[in-house]
Amino acid sequence: MKFVELLYNTLPIQSKVKLNQSVVDILQDALGVSVILADGSVEQGDIVVASDGVHSYTRELMYKHANNQNSAKKLATTLQSRYKCLFGISSLPSGQTAGDMVETHYKNMCIQLLCQAEHVFWFLFVKLETPTTVKVNYTEEEALAFAKQYMDTPVTSSTSFRDLWQKGYRFTLANLEEGVQKQWHSGRIVLLGDAAHKMTPNLAFGFNNALESAASLTNHLHKLLESSSIPTENSISAVFKAYQTQRFSRAKFSHDLTAFYTSFAAWENSLMKWASIITPKILPETFPVDQLAKLVKGAVKLEFLEVPERELGTVAFDDEVETKYASSMAIAWIGGLLAVLVTGVLWSGIGSS
Ligand SMILES: Cc1cc2nc3c(=O)[nH]c(=O)nc-3n(C[C@H](O)[C@H](O)[C@H](O)COP(=O)(O)OP(=O)(O)OC[C@H]3O[C@@H](n4cnc5c(N)ncnc54)[C@H](O)[C@@H]3O)c2cc1C
Predict the structure, then answer these.
(1) 162 phi and psi angles, rounded to 5 deg
(2) What is the mean pLDDT of residues 151-157?
(3) The whole model's pTM is what?
(4) Which residues form a coiled coil (predicted)?
């Protein structure tokens, strides 16, 4: 929430942000879009950026428009959940310090702890018996019943899940949808964030990808507005297409890598289990982080703003300096896959069969 607040405080016209409103319909023509809100009011503009999350209703409206344009062809990618996740926040367990990342592996299950000064964000990932495409809203009772099954499960060598639970402030149980939409725009509507590319949280790439997509779309729109203050439908479509072209492969790569890592961390097969145990003994400790950095350093930035002066990190972004690393996608793929083989155990507090 702090981040949203920071962004909100920098807005030049805050009254444009309407809270507690939901979109019910979108009408578009050659002159612009009209967004109908639940209270009956109408917002008008040139484009709609559908950033309304994994179950995006605006995406449905976009596909309705696209399907009308394509003789009722069905274009939407169906999201699938293979895992469910109970996640929560608790007081920092004894033995852990701020900055610790602990990952504990089991057959078809994985527990992650991300430690801060006073509390820990924890995630209990469990493979579903059967993958589902159905949207599920778990009740608090269902989440409690789920948690009860894991109370005696060790999460570090000195902490059980019960210890975390007893010091917990909040928890949520949710299925983890996965999928990248093949089409991100139609007419004046464009998808952004989870609405376009949804991945599991295991490698923490979801929001990062949403931010990159926002930067890419903004760069393209900024260029368009420099050349024309009243964009046409064609010029808007061209911008949306260029945005999807720039972002699709990186988002898909993040999605695929994360999907693989989710399976790997949950020891879906014996090869994954033994690879996660053996590879840290062979490769240097920094290897997984270096590999992930190769992906992160290619991130999109806002091109029309000066980057504030700051100390360069250990790994520079592609546009900052030439690095010794090759940046091709093929090498990133190989490196990324190797990285996930190692990351699991480096983050492991303990391993259990
Ligand atoms: C447990 C968990 C942990 C995560 N950890 C990380 C992490 O460490 N790092 C990381 O990068 N990512 C992480 N993610 C992923 C990250 O949360 C998402 O990728 C990110 O929030 C996506 O942003 P979004 O704006 O696309 O969608 P959302 O954050 O889902 O926002 C969508 C917004 O649209 C609104 N909305 C929905 N429907 C309508 C409508 N009809 N009308 C108007 N408004 C509507 C919703 O109220 C909501 O405010 C995690 C996800 C989960 C589940």
Answers:
(1) -60, -40
(2) 96
(3) 0.89
(4) none
**pLDDT-derived band at 312, boundaries 50, 70, 90:** confident
CA-closest residue to ligand 1 atom 11: 207
Q: DSSP alpha helices (H): ranges in the chain?
A: 2-9, 57-69, 140-148, 161-166, 206-227, 233-265, 270-282, 287-296, 329-346
Token pair of 312, please?
């360069």
Specify the amino acid at residue 28: Q
Closest residue by Cα to atom 9, ligand 1, is 204
Q: Are strands 348-351 and 101-106 parallel, antiparallel or unpaired?
A: parallel
Give the distance (Å) from ligand 1 centre to CA of residue 67.
Answer: 26
Task: Using the atom order of ligand 1, give the atom closest to the CA of residue 22.
Answer: 42
Average pLDDT of 60-79?
85
Q: Which of 57, 61, 64 is nearest to 195 (CA)?
A: 57
194 CA → ligand 1 middle, Å: 6
> Tokens 């991100």 identify what position?
184
Q: Which domains does the chain have, with CATH numbers?
A: 21-77+179-248 (3.50.50.60), 80-178 (3.30.9.100)
Please give the single-letter amino acid code of residue 255. Answer: H
Model confidence pLDDT, tens digit, residues 239-272: 999 999 999 999 999 999 999 999 999 999 999 9
CA 35 to ligand 1 centroid distance, Å = 21
